[in-house]
Amino acid sequence: MMVKQITSTLISLALALPLLAQDDLLAGLEAEQADQKTLVDATFKGTRLINGHSIETRKQGVMDFIIAHRFGTIDGGAYELFGLDNALVRIGLEYALNDRLYAGAGRSSFEKTYDGFVKYRLLRQSTGKGSVPLSATWLSSMALKTLKDPTYDLQFTDKLAFTHQLLLARKFNNGLSLQLMPTWVHRNLIGETDLNNDILALGMGGRIKLSQRVALCAEYYYQFQHLNENTQNALAIGVDIETGGHVFQLQFTNATSMVPKGFVSETTNDFFKGEIHFGFNVSRTFQLN
């Protein structure tokens, strides 16, 4: 009987030792991970939330080719094929100089506008030792409207407008990311009915993942000062679809312009009156080095 008890005790100890060793190993790994700083990635699918920029940039050496379309308003009905008879397009090319610095340029058919921008990642959300709770990216962009106006003899500098944004975002989990966008738009020249050269706005938006490759996005810009009495706050709702090297962004928005100074401060359509444009962005990336 005594031999049987001793044998049973030894077997129990033999079975428990590996479990104790495993617990020690897991505790060690957890302690090691707590001492390491891990960057949070993929807060958003692409460099655009919908109309505006996200905090995302590309990795060094990646070039991004973006084509964006905005069609006419869907309240044109079947005669206008719900806006598809009228299309505006922006073609852009962007490049990551390093993992933090990202720049690009484009040309829009809307008001024959040329634009360029620079983004720089100030902070990256991280976990572990010295963690940072959110990501921060600075964006500065310039737009040049080249649409001819026979009424005025405009100088080159009169046609320029500038936008500066601080993009703040947090990825709460794999399914939810939110972003705030304090924004300043400056126009060198304003029209006779315009009130302000400078427009301050606060953008807000986010993304909810519906599946591994599909996400629902929303974006809204509230203007503290309006350019004139006709301008509206820009609202957009979209769906992101990722297919390998492509990101398709389908959207409904009351904004016509596809550059920051335009959709933040010059939107005139009322989303809730059905003055909504269907549009999409298509992004294709290339690794150059």
UniProtKB/TrEMBL annotation:
Against InterPro entries, the record matches this protein to: DUF5777
Presence of the UniProt keyword Signal in the record: yes
Q: What domain of life is recorded for the organism? A: Bacteria
A Pfam family that the UniProt record links to this protein: DUF5777
Sorted keywords for this record are:
Signal
- Is the keyword Signal in the record? yes
Give start-end of the signal peptide: 1-21
Chain segments annotated as coiled-coil in the UniProt record: none
Q: What is this protein called?
A: DUF5777 family beta-barrel protein
**What residues does the DUF5777 domain cover?**
44-286
